[in-house]
Amino acid sequence: MQFAVLGGFVLAAFAPLLHRWFGERTGWVLALLPGALLLWLLGQLPTVVAGETLVFEQAWVPGLEITLTFLLDGLSLLFALLISGIGVLVLIYASGYLKGHPDLVRFHVVILAFMMSMLGLVLADNLVSLFVFWELTSITSYLLIGFNHTDLEARKSALQGLFVTVGGGLALLAGLILLALAGDSWSLQELTGRGELLRGHDLYLPILLCLLAGAFTKSAQFPFHFWLPNAMAAPTPVSAYLHSATMVKAGVYLLARLSPALGGTPAWEAWLCLIGALTMLTGAFLALRHTNIKKLLAYSTVMALGTLTLLLGIGSEQAMVAFATFLLAHSLYKGALFMVAGILDHETGTKDIALMGGLRRVMPVTALCAAVAALSLGGVIPLFGFVAKELLFAAAWEGGWRDLLLPATLIAAILTLAAAAIVGIRPFFGERRELPRDPHEGPGTMLLGPVLLAGLSLLLGLWPGAAEGLVAATASSVGGAPVAASLYLWHGINGPLLLSLVSLALGLLLFRHWARWRAALRPLEPLIQRGPEALYFRLMDALVEVAEWQTRLLQNGYMRNYLVMMLLVLVGLTGVTLFARHELHLAVALDVQLHEALVVGLMVAGAVMACVLRARLAAVASVGVMGFCIALTFVLFSAPDLGITQLLVETLTVILLILVLFRLPRFARLSSPLERVRDLVVAAATGGLMTLLILQVVSIDPFSSISDYMVANSQPLGHGHNIVNVILVDFRALDTLGEMFVLALAAIGVFAMLRFHAGEYETRDRQARGEVVDD
Amino acid sequence: MIRSGTLILHVAARLLMPLQLLFSVFLLLRGHDEPGGGFIAGLVASGAFALYLFAFGPRATRQMLRVAPQDLIGLGLCLGVISALPAWWQGQPFLTAQWWTIPWIDFKFSTPLIFDIGVYLVVQGSVLIAVLALMEGDSEEVSHD
């Protein structure tokens, strides 16, 4: 299992090579991997339905309790089936949709990487690996939304999606760590068994809020819903896959997964029901504002995500069954509808539904798929969507908060039905209109997906028993206890059926008057404009402003200001700690030899000269004197390695300084007397504090030093007599490795600065114009 | 501006540079037991090249170096990472030192040595990159005049 998922990442890396071999057919070749996974997962279906949980153990970082263990129970199996199944269809679909696109290779690399990240996310048992896969889906989603990178809107939308989901990801990380601390385990399987402990824990509320922030941003819940419709800037295969069937459901998945551990408390119910219902209404309501078919579908996805959250909030057995059914139904019809939208866009050259009409004669198969999927979306008998909607009504009917949730669900159902009718009927019936392109039936590669998905919607609608096992297994893992599910198309005449009929009638009425409805909504436009998205933009602007302000303040390009700032922070923090937390012990017992005094005297003289001298070269030499005296001190106190290093560094510094000095402009302006006083104060404070600190360190000995260990073990463990070297290359080799990389980066930085020096010409220009230039 | 071409500097650089390089290798190899090691040796070696650079200019130095300093850095980082792998292979924690005695010449070969050579190359490459870039910037200006 792990092998297949990690192998998928490797396959993604090799996609460019496969392109060279298979050209246009690469999509089909790549689809083999998710296809094989799909078959294998279907093979596991009977075992999981029987109530077993398959565990695939794999260590990753044993020292930190991080594992790559995969868990296959009902919930993860349902998700994995959707991911791999729709993944196959999307890969094939994309080979038609993006045919001849110059960046098809890039698409394949990223979408395959996404597929594997998503699989890892729903299968992971360990919180850390779950988080890693979670962030990987955010990053791959960013790359896919911004696929058309020459388009400014696409880039903006991609960045917006990234900021929102990764911002939530930070909260999620905090939440997961708190969860692991509170539950004393990093394993989801163990945590779900510790519900009592977690719900009674002092940290319960912080954990819940952090996790909700992560889940709500990922799953586009109100008030973070705005990124999802904007993400429609992505190519349609991406929208069909990431932004309807899989990635946006990751947040819902996490909530469902943790529902046995954290669910059922008043806080859980209140947050999930409230936000879920709000999201559901917002999505359903805003969907009808749009004539762009992808935006309309995106808002209806927002509505569906809200519904799923709401069902998790209700938390009854009925709601769990409804959750699983709705999830499956939604992925099937929404995937199909997005693919239909892609065909329409591809064939007509526009995404605007208001421009389309009468297309059923030229694209009969597409029209049929659209009709079936739209009926399922609207929840019309005999589609699978109807079964899901009945269960939803039943759950809202029986759950708590009924007076609030039932009307909300009904309103959402009415609006959704109208949206479904718009998508399923409007483009295909009525008069033909002028279109940017002469439409034809879509190619076979693009029809395969919608036909299969719409067909499944119909099949499961007529024979809901086929999905019973999977739904029951999913509901059981969400509920934390075995749940029996029986799905029927016909429940007899009861409350939910009446609600369905009401929603059908009112929805159709709304569809007839769609244009008038949109006109009526227009006065609300300013209010919608001031929604959460406006807040997001203001936040981003403020962020940039603060960044600019602090750059002007702290990183203004003047070396002396950097120094002053750094030294003041150092003096401030260290000084406060020294004086507030410790008593000052100054046991000064001076026992100075003559040669030591001489060296120190030289050092002081060098420092004074460096400050006083006007000639630069002489100043450099004085600083050099100081450096060599320090080296001498090392040698006097028997640290030859440090001494040698200091000596060499000092030599090279002098060389570098000499090289640099020739490139510097003449001092045009020297510091004013006031500035000098300021610098003197800062310097004196720093020097004084360091002196106090060293005297203090000498007089206290609060903990045993690690150097005894190093001295004792250098020869037996490290096979070396030079302790410094053994520490550098053996005991602390990881630190050294890190420093090697830092050094390399610094060197690259220096190289870049010297080679691509735009600033230098600017300075020269300013000098030429006689402006003031200083260091 | 730095003028290259004085006789004393030429002769000194020619004579001293090989000695300095030899000394740096000596420091590198004995570093595990006596004062020395990759960092110090790298500094000595870059000092040697800097001397040559002052005497003969950047172009001659690059010709003598044959490899770009960037490549030295890359190679050094690779060696650093490579030295971490044998321990991994043995199932021990990352970067655990491995020692092998080469029988005929009685020389102890080890991953810390590979690591130290990596440090040596990275230090040398980093200093050379900066010094060469600075000198070349100067000579460009000279050619403008």
TrEMBL record, chain A:
Family matches, as InterPro entries: CPA3_Na-H_Antiporter_A, MrpA_C/MbhD, MrpA_C/MbhE, ND/Mrp_TM, Proton_antipo_N
Residues of the MrpA C-terminal/MbhE domain: 675-757
Domain NADH-Ubiquinone oxidoreductase (complex I) chain 5 N-terminal, first and last residues per copy: 63-107
Subcellular location: Cell membrane; Membrane
GO CC annotations, alphabetized: plasma membrane
Membrane topology: Multi-pass membrane protein
Residues in NADH:quinone oxidoreductase/Mrp antiporter transmembrane domain copies: 124-407
Biological-process GO terms, alphabetical: monoatomic ion transport
Transmembrane region(s): 6-22, 29-50, 70-93, 105-124, 130-147, 159-183, 203-228, 240-256, 268-289, 296-314, 320-344, 365-384, 404-425, 446-467, 487-511, 562-580, 592-610, 617-637, 643-665, 677-700, 740-758
Domain annotation MrpA C-terminal/MbhD: ranges: 602-666
MF GO annotations: antiporter activity
Keyword entries, A-Z: Antiport, Cell membrane, Ion transport, Membrane, Transmembrane, Transmembrane helix, Transport
One Pfam family per UniProt: Proton_antipo_M
UniProt-recorded name of the protein: Monovalent cation/H+ antiporter subunit A
Organism: Bisbaumannia pacifica
Name of the encoding gene: mrpA
From TrEMBL, chain B:
Organism: Bisbaumannia pacifica
UniProt topology in membrane: Multi-pass membrane protein
Keywords: Cell membrane, Membrane, Transmembrane, Transmembrane helix
Transmembrane portions of the chain: 7-29, 35-55, 67-89, 109-134
InterPro entries in the record: CPA3_antiporter_subunitB (IPR050622), MnhB (IPR007182)
Pfam family for this entry, one: MnhB
Domain Na+/H+ antiporter MnhB subunit-related protein, residue spans: 8-128
Coiled coil: none
Cellular location(s): Cell membrane
GO cellular component, one term: plasma membrane
Domain of life: Bacteria
Protein name: Na(+)/H(+) antiporter subunit B
NCBIfam families: PRK12509.1
Family from the record: Belongs to the CPA3 antiporters (TC 2.A.63) subunit B family.
PANTHER family per UniProt: NA(+)/H(+) ANTIPORTER SUBUNIT B, NA(+)_H(+) ANTIPORTER SUBUNIT B
